């Protein structure tokens, strides 16, 4: 199971902000630097870390940390 | 058929609703959905039945291609790869759109630039083609990437044609729509949804027929004028259009979402007080939200991925290109390309500003954004570059500043070089024009939007009275037929 503890460092590095604390209900609106541009950096950083690939149609669901974790876990269990 | 027509309001909508829920009540789910599909196709064919075969072929074609893609792992086709099928489907959709929407633009551009003398084809744009083509392109991409699970032709056809969104959005995603037609509790009439849906519908109707249609006359007079416009005439023409477009398109979207609710179907929200935006990034999170999502997902991301390793600069280039294409999607003309380019450039500046943490107060951010958006809509509205130029020259004061003749008594104004007379005559305006513009500005900047209003609505007499007032006011203005602006795209 991937947990919040595993993805938090990715967020902190991509957004260059060590004060980021995530919960499953965090969304793109809650993080100042998280916009459509940095979203792609985040997606690609996650793809590299977990060695998975997201489809285009999945990118909008990734704007919510809870759904992001669900999706990563589903991909890893495949 | 228009939402703002009496035949829609008093015949089509009630009949469709009643029969749909009667069939659902008798547990004839397939008959109910078939009825809704039939009603939607009837709605589409009301004005011009010529393009019915076109939309039906488009649906069958994309459904078939989607099916081949979904089942490719189990039943691969000989001699053609999965990617080949996908590219074939994608190309067919783009070619369809090019033929009906862009052919004359390509021909006239070639005539201008290369000196060819090809005759124009004068093809009439089929209603809704831009919208049903891109929703289905998204479906093909998702089918190719393995995200399509549900395979049901009736649900698919209903998702594409469902009449509230068919002609001008909101742009739907099959993943959020198709399951809704299956959900059990959606099949029982809900009085609460009906009430809230009607409420939202009538607010939308009011925005369209009372507010947008009022601004429309001044905007049209200004943009169609071949005479030079003075400073204030030009500004009020462009502001009138900025308000007309918002109240027209968001009014239409409210009506679409409201009708969806009556059928227990939730359509995505398209507007969130866009003129409150304090930056260009913020603006596109609030304006035509479903288009922003589509452009980000299916244009910006593939462009960026095609570049290879992601850098800040490459992201900006991708943003600019995506907005340029999105501008061209709106209409086949240089004015739309310029409009898209302006918004691309605006987003780039906003991103650079943000990355370098440059200062900006909310007030200045709002003012710059609103002014920039207002200038960009001059190109969006103008039928030609010459017409855009005419309005812009007025706005930059090339034709002098005329004040209302009542101000002539204030001596020093004349010394400053102002002239006096019928200052808004150029756009057939009067005192209503500037008063309406100021009221509209205050409303969109300081007031709640329709979604926020409806969220607080309760079934009590106060709200009922408000509903009665705005619906009667709207009925009084419904004598004339006026299309929604986004039907032309």
Give structural notes.
The complex is a heterodimer of chains A (78) and B (489). With 78 residues, chain A is mainly alpha-helical. Helix content of chain A is 49%, strand content 0%. In chain A, helix 1 packs across helix 2. The model of chain A has no long low-confidence stretch (mean pLDDT 87). By secondary structure, chain B is mostly helical. Chain B is built from 19 helices and two strands. Chain B has a two-stranded parallel sheet. In chain B, helix 16 links the parallel strand 1 and strand 2. Chain B is globular. Chains A and B meet through helix 2 of A and helix 5, helix 11 and helix 12 of B.
Can you tell me the residue ranges of chain A where pLDDT is under 50 for at least 5 consecutive residues? Answer: none
How can the largest sheet of chain A be summarized?
Answer: none
> What are the low-pLDDT stretches of chain B, counting only 5+ consecutive residues below 50?
none
Q: Helical stretch count of chain B?
A: 19
Summarize, please.
The complex is a heterodimer of chains A (78) and B (489). Chain A has helices at 4-14, 36-50, 65-76. Chain A has 78 residues and is mostly helical.
């Amino acid at each position: 199971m991937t947990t919040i503890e595993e993805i938090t460092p990715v967020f902190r590095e991509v957004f260059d902000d060590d004060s980021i604390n995530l919960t499953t209900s965090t969304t793109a609106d809650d993080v100042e630097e998280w916009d459509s541009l940095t979203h792609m950096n985040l997606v690609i950083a996650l793809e590299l870390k977990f060695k998975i690939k997201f489809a285009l149609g999945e990118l909008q669901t990734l704007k919510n940390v809870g759904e992001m974790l669900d999706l990563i876990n589903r991909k890893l269990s495949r | 058929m228009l939402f703002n027509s009496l035949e829609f309001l008093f015949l089509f909508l009630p009949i469709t609703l009643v029969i749909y829920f009667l069939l659902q009540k008798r547990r004839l789910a397939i008959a109910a959905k078939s009825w809704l599909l039939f009603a939607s196709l009837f709605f589409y064919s009301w004005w011009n039945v010529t393009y019915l075969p076109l939309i039906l072929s488009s649906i069958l074609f994309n459904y078939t291609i989607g099916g081949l893609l979904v089942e490719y792992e189990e039943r691969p086709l000989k001699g053609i790869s999965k990617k080949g099928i996908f590219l074939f489907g994608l190309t067919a959709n783009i070619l369809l759109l090019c033929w009906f929407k862009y052919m004359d633009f390509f021909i006239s551009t070639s005539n201008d630039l290369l000196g060819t003398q090809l005759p124009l084809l004068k093809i009439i744009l089929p209603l809704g083609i831009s919208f049903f083509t891109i929703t289905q392109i998204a479906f093909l991409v998702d089918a190719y990437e393995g995200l399509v699970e549900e395979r049901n032709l009736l649900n698919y056809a209903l998702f594409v044609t469902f009449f509230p969104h068919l002609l001008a959005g909101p742009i739907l995603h099959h993943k959020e729509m198709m399951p809704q037609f299956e959900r059990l509790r959606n099949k029982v009439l809900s009085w609460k949804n009906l009430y809230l849906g009607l409420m939202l519908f009538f607010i939308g109707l009011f925005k369209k027929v009372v507010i947008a249609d009022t601004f429309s006359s001044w905007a049209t007079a200004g943009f169609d004028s071949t005479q030079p416009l003075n400073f204030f005439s030009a500004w009020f023409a462009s502001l009138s259009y900025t308000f007309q477009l918002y109240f027209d398109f968001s009014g239409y979207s409210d009506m679409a979402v409201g009708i969806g609710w009556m059928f227990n179907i939730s359509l995505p929200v398209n507007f969130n007080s866009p003129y409150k935006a304090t930056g260009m990034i913020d603006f596109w999170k609030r304006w035509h939200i479903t288009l922003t999502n589509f452009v980000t997902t299916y244009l910006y991301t593939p462009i960026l991925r095609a570049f290879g390793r992601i850098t800040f600069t490459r992201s900006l280039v991708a943003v600019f290109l995506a907005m340029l294409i999105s501008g061209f999607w709106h209409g086949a003309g240089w004015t739309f390309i310029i409009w898209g380019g302006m918004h691309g450039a605006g987003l780039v500046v906003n991103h650079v500003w943000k990355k370098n943490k440059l200062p900006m107060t909310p007030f200045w951010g709002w003012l710059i954004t609103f002014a920039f958006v207002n200038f960009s809509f001059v190109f969006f509205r103008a039928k030609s570059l010459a017409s855009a130029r005419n309005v812009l020259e007025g706005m930059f004061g090339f034709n002098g500043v005329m004040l209302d003749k009542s101000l002539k008594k204030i001596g020093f104004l004349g010394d400053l070089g102002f002239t006096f007379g019928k200052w808004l005559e150029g756009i057939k305006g009067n005192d209503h024009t500037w008063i309406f513009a100021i009221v509209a500005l205050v409303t969109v900047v300081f007031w709640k939007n329709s979604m926020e209003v409806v969220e607080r609505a309760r079934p009590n007499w106060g709200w009922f009275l408000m509903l009665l007032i705005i619906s009667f006011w709207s009925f009084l203005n419904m004598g004339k037929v006026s299309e929604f602006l986004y039907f032309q795209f």
